[in-house]
Amino acid sequence: MVGFKNTGKLTAYFYILGRVTRASAPATFQSHFFLIDRHVAQFRAIEERPAAASGVGLSCVLIRCVRRIGQKVERPPMWVMRQAGRYLPEYHEAKGTRDFFECCRDAEVASTLTLQPVERFEGLLDAAIIFSDILVIPQAMGMQVEMVDKKGPHFPNPLQSPADGQYEQVLGREVDVAAELDYVYKAITLTRKKLAGRVPLIGFCGAPWTLFCYMVEGGGTKLFAQVKTWIYKYPEESKKLLAKIADVCVDHLALQVKAGAQAVMVFDSWAGELSPASFKEFSEPYLAHIAQKLPLKLQELDLEKVPMTVFPKGAWYALDSVCNLGYNVVGMDWLQDAAEAVKIRGDRNVVFQGNADPGCLYGSKAAITEAVETMVKGFWTGNNKGWIANLGHGITPGVNPDNLKFFFEEIHRLTKP
Questions:
Q1: What is the mean pLDDT of residues 92-116?
Q2: What CATH number does the domain located at 53-415 have?
Q3: Is 182 exposed, middle or buried (0-12, 13-18, 19+ CB in 10 A)?
């Protein structure tokens, strides 16, 4: 690597194998500094790029499972949702006194938290997922979001109605995702460097319907009364905002890939709160939009396509149509019977992900083994393809990390050739 520093005398520092040699020239050569600065910027840009995707290419079981759909792999790849999080003692040590979104906005901290499960469960995990949150998109769209300890996300000023003034502001806002969410992309690039090809890195976003729920309800809810009011009273206004959110999702996912993410996932955590008819009207079209537009956006950026996963939690009734949306992977929760899901999929080139009940990790080793056996029997036995082992939702804070380790070990044991 050759580096240059402008000292006023065209002083050049040549960094070769860790040694420094100094060469000076008269100040009359200062006019050439603009060329030197340009080359320095080019060198730095090359240095800062994430490692080539081939570093975890087809040698990675997860990438092979998804890209070579229909072909057998030696074992199912595995990771779990929320694997970087509060159940790990080291998470609390690294987080310190920072609040949740401070951790997300600090690239070094977010990277450290992302890597913690990879390092703790070395040799057992087949993917890392960037430490971030689905609600960074509403923040980028101009809404205030707080993370309240022991309560979860809170919007001090949720959307009240299409006439509240804020709706038009959010709808009309030009969202500069690159500027608003730059911290996410920095964390991804840094994490890719630290991973050094050990496992692929997953980027993600929330699905339009789920984000819309939070923006209207103001946080978590059991009744979904506000968002149901919107879709039944203001259906067209709801769809306009859902379309806007979907476009921001595409931009955010594309820039995560540009930063170094090798796969992406769309979390529709509240999909199951919709009836089958409402799901087809208020969720499915926007999931399809993301699946269709993201590859085109990547092409515009001169980037290769990456595997795409969708997780419509609770929408078991829509599995057949979800398999046709264009995603490579469909995640499912524990309410879906594995064997029945495989029948519904048929010969379509879709990988399933899931779907153990996260609650099994509170149980005995025998209970964990039983949960793994059920998944293996339904998704894997006699098939050996088209399955990524995971939980049916995110791991919860009270889980003993040793139980998760045993969960991974049992998957390895029960699926080894």
A1: 98
A2: 3.20.20.210
A3: middle
Distances (CA, A) of 136 to 126, 142, 211, 224: 26, 10, 10, 21
- Give the start-to-end residue ranges of the domains of the chain: 1-48, 53-415
| Own/partner long-range contacts of 41-50 (Cβ < 8 Å, ≥24 apart) | 43/1, 43/2, 43/3, 47/1, 48/189, 49/189, 50/188, 50/189, 50/192, 50/193, 50/259, 50/260
Amino acid of residue 106: D
pTM (2 d.p.):
0.87
Report the alpha-carbon distance of residue 417 to residue 409 in Å, rounded.
14
* Three-state SS sequence of the chain: CCEECCCCCCCEEEEECCEEEEECCCHHHHHHHHHHHHHHHHHHHHHHCCCCHHHHCCCCHHHHHHHCCCCCCCCCCECCCCCCCCCCHHHHHHHCCCCHHHHHHCHHHHHHHHHHHHHHCCCCCCCEECCCCCCHHHHHCCCCCEEECCCEEECCCCCCCCCCCHHHHHHHCCCCHHHHCHHHHHHHHHHHHHHCCCCCEEEEEECHHHHHHHHHHCECCCCCHHHHHHHHHCHHHHHHHHHHHHHHHHHHHHHHHHHCCCEEEEEECCHHHCCHHHHHHHCHHHHHHHHHHHHHHHHHCCCCCCCEEEEECCCHHHHHHHCCCCCCEEECCCCCCHHHHHHHHCCCCCEEEEEECHHHHHCCHHHHHHHHHHHHHHHHCCCCCCEEEEECCCCCCCCCHHHHHHHHHHHHHHHCC
**CB-CB contact of 262 with 254 (8 Å):** no
Span 275-285, pLDDT tens digits: 999 999 999 99
C-alpha span between 326 and 291 (Å, rounded): 6
Q: Which residues of 346-379 are buried (b: 16+ CB within 10 A; e: fewer)?
A: eeeebbbbbbbbbebbeeeeeebbebbebbbebb
Burial level of 66, CB count in 10 A (0-12/13-18/19+)?
buried
At residue 113, φ and ψ (nearest 5 deg) are: -65, -35
What are the tens digits of pLDDT across the range 320-339?
Answer: 999 999 999 999 999 999 99
